[in-house]
Specification:
Blueprint: H1 3-13, H2 26-33, H3 40-48, H4 54-64, H5 80-90, H6 94-101, H7 106-116
Helix pairs in contact: 1-2, 1-4, 2-3, 5-6, 5-7
Length: 121
Amino acid sequence: MNPFDYLNSINSTKKDIMEQESTYNPYMINRGLSYFNDTVLYANEMNRYHHLDNKLQYHFLINSIRPRKRFSKWLKKSDPDSVDVVKEYYGYSNEKARQVLSLLSADQINELKQRLYKGGK
């Protein structure tokens, strides 16, 4: 079982799919639930009571959260190469470059890379 199976079970199907406690990853489940306004407090409670068994956490969530189709893209780290390009081109710090990177399209980033290309091998 992967975390997405557990999230789907908690969010929509409401079928108890826990076969082995070792396959349940509370961190990933709580992270997945934290993207939604109606489940973020449940995820926070499970973070507060992290010492509980995985089975207890899973059963609490599956029985407390109302069924609804929830989907969101997981946040991923930005490409470090793109951050370096923005830093070099504009002279920004790491933090400022990450903020600006979210405003630029892929085409704009490629244009910056071409402008900074120094040639060579």
